[in-house]
């Protein structure tokens, strides 16, 4: 059963409840591809320039257990503990970027055999140079990837992968963010899942 907009609006992040959130943004999309295919694209940031108009570029700053050299750069694939900087395009038609330092707090791949959805949680990296203190703004974002059964217009049940994501923000600065960017963030969250759907389905057909 695919998630409803209302059910996503009521979802907590690991440390922020919906009632505490000053700003809560979410989106979801059904993709005609296996969960593992969608997951592999989502966690491989080297693919993002090809589909992600909201965050077309990511700088991986640290990977757990890695000692990067000129010959062995850091892997672009997210893992638990990855420290990264999103180069965010609030206006996808503009080249202007906002740098947002983040850390992957949780990463669990989907398990189709047990029905467990894949889950990524990232949050502010307050250890990064120039990071906003958590008491001013703390954001947590959850991504889930899960195979679900949906009925088509003829009543036939088909398996699709649902990608759902939601973000909660707290802190004094979030009131400004909500006032200035709430509608923009909502639009960009919708673009994120829509871009991912188009890319995955297009590459499967190629």
Proper CATH architecture: 2-Layer Sandwich
SSE ordering: HEHEEEEEEH
Based on CA atoms alone, the radius of gyration comes out at 17 Å
Q: Strands across the major sheet, in which order?
A: 1-7-6-5-4-3-2
Rough outline: globular
Total domain modules: 1
Largest beta sheet, briefly?
7 strands, antiparallel
CATH T-level fold name: Alpha-D-Glucose-1,6-Bisphosphate, Chain A, domain 4
CATH class: Alpha Beta
Question: What is the helical fraction, as a range of percent?
Answer: 10-25%
Main features:
206 residues, alpha+beta, Alpha-D-Glucose-1,6-Bisphosphate, Chain A, domain 4, seven-stranded antiparallel beta sheet, 22% helix, 33% strand
Write the layout of secondary structure elements.
Layout: H1 5-9, E1 23-31, H2 35-43, E2 57-62, E3 83-88, E4 98-108, E5 118-124, E6 138-151, E7 157-170, H3 174-205
Explain what the structure shows:
The structure is a single chain. The chain is of the alpha+beta class and 206 residues long. It has one domain: 2-Layer Sandwich (Alpha-D-Glucose-1,6-Bisphosphate, Chain A, domain 4), CATH 3.30.530.20. It contains three helices and seven strands; from the N terminus they run H-E-H-E-E-E-E-E-E-H. The chain has helices at residues 5-9, 35-43, 174-205, and strands at residues 23-31, 57-62, 83-88, 98-108, 118-124, 138-151, 157-170. The chain has a seven-stranded antiparallel sheet with strand order 1-7-6-5-4-3-2. A hairpin with a 5-residue loop joins strand 6 (138-151) and strand 7 (157-170).
């Amino acid at each position: 059963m695919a998630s409803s907009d209302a059910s996503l609006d009521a979802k907590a992040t690991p440390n922020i409840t919906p009632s505490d959130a000053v700003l809560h943004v979410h989106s979801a999309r059904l993709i005609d591809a296996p969960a593992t295919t969608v997951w592999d694209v989502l966690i491989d940031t080297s693919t993002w320039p090809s589909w992600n108009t909201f965050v077309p570029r990511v700088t991986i700053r640290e990977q757990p257990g890695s000692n990067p050299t000129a010959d062995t750069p850091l892997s672009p694939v997210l893992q638990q503990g990855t420290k990264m900087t999103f180069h965010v395009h609030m206006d996808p038609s503009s080249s202007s970027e906002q740098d947002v330092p983040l850390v992957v707090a949780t990463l669990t791949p989907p398990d189709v055999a047990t029905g467990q959805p894949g889950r990524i949680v990232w949050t502010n990296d307050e250890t990064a140079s120039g990071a906003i203190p958590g008491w001013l703004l703390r954001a947590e974002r959850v991504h889930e990837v899960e195979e679900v059964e949906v009925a088509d217009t003829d009543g036939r049940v088909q398996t699709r992968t649902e990608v759902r994501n939601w973000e909660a923000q707290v802190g004094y600065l979030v009131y400004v963010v909500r006032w200035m960017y709430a509608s923009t963030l909502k639009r960009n969250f919708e673009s994120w899942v829509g871009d991912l759907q188009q890319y995955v389905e297009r590459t499967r057909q190629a």
